[in-house]
Amino acid sequence: MHEVEPRPIFIFGCPRSGTSVLTRMLDTHPDIAIPYESHLYNRVYPVVRRHCPDLSHPRTRARLVRELLRADPLTLWTPRPSAADTVAAITRDDFHGIVEGLMRAWTRNQGKSRWGEKTPQHTLCWRAIREGFPDLQVINLIRDGRDVALSHKAARFGPKHAYHLAGRWVQYLSAAEEAESALGVGAFLSVRYEDLVAEPETELRRICVFLKEDYSPAMLAFHRGDTAYPTDQRNMDNLRRPLLAGNTEKWRRQMTARDLRIFEALAGGQLDRYGYPRAMREPRLAAWEALSCRYIEHPPRRALAMLTNRQGYRFALQRFRLNTRIRFGL
User: Fold this and answer.
1) Pick from 80, 19, 115, 114: which is nearest to 227 by CA?
2) What is the set of domains in the chain, with CATH numbers?
3) Would you tell me the crossing angle of helices 58-69 and 95-109 to the nearest 10 degrees?
4) Who's near 309: CB < 8 A, 6+ residues apart?
5) Which of 19, 72, 235, 275 is the most exposed place for a label (fewest CB within 10 A)?
6) What span, in angstroms and rounded, lies between the C-alpha atoms of 262 and 289?
7) CB 18 within 8 Å of CB 141
């Protein structure tokens, strides 16, 4: 009789919602292994599906594995994935099988039995992921969108204007809501970042009940680990210290009145739905101001951020190379 493999875990959430710290906490569990982000479904899967849909030949799968492991962010995993181990762990002749083989082999090399995956952008790819992993379990992390917006503006990637950041937060919430409706209670759990930092043991115990795993106190000591996690410096600093219970409602001190008005005008309904009190009763955003936000104010801010994002340049070049290899034959 074959042993039943544990259900895969996917961590969803809008970028800058605290998914990295939740990943580190769960990765400290003695049975669960979650590496750095993979971006396999948002960046690679669409290209493979269009240009290399037939992965039935073992050589084609092996070549794709080698190409994937030569590009960021998989080159940033600690320890580095093994191509030979990944290929040996593949049991399905499609892209999902390659993802499964990668995660399975990497997890076994950590001496653990259950794998998880955390790429926030995969929240928008939940349909493709469910297609490949119908028995998945999702942990969706929700954070006050105004704090998400502040964190995003300081990050090296992503939108840099309250108008676009509000739309992004709403987009991710909507995708997660659709996934929750499709997957059901036993496969989907929402966790508020604010609850996680205020009562970490309570929330981690709730997560473990959902995953049907024993609670491990080691998860609270995630910051003591020495495993490299190649995020930006600000995020890395936070991962090296215990959870900050006061790391909430920063928008009250740091968000400008105009940014607050714009954000709440666009995302006020979602703030209400998720229990985040508004600062303004009836914020307004005129049509002319919305156009200014989109086409005049945001582009130079985004361009400036891109100019200073050296890692983004490297990622883009490697992604171009990978996509070219897939399109013109592995």
Assistant:
1) 80
2) 9-143+179-246+301-327 (3.40.50.300)
3) 60
4) 156, 157
5) 275
6) 9
7) yes
**Residue listed under structure tokens 């600000």:** 234
Q: Token digits for 317?
A: 């070049």
* pTM of structure: 0.91
Q: Report whether 176 contacts 123 (CB < 8 A).
A: yes
CA dist list (Å): 34 to 29, 45, 190, 231, 310: 10, 20, 18, 15, 26
- Alpha helices by DSSP H, listed for the chain, are 19-27, 45-51, 58-69, 83-89, 95-109, 126-132, 145-154, 162-183, 193-198, 200-211, 233-239, 251-254, 257-273, 287-292, 298-307, 310-327
| pLDDT average per 10 residues of sequence, the chain (330 residues) | 80 96 95 96 93 90 94 91 97 96 97 97 98 98 97 80 95 98 96 96 98 96 71 61 83 96 97 96 93 88 68 66 72
What's the token pair of residue 245? Answer: 């219970």
Omega of the bond leading into 79 within 30 degrees of 0 (cis): yes
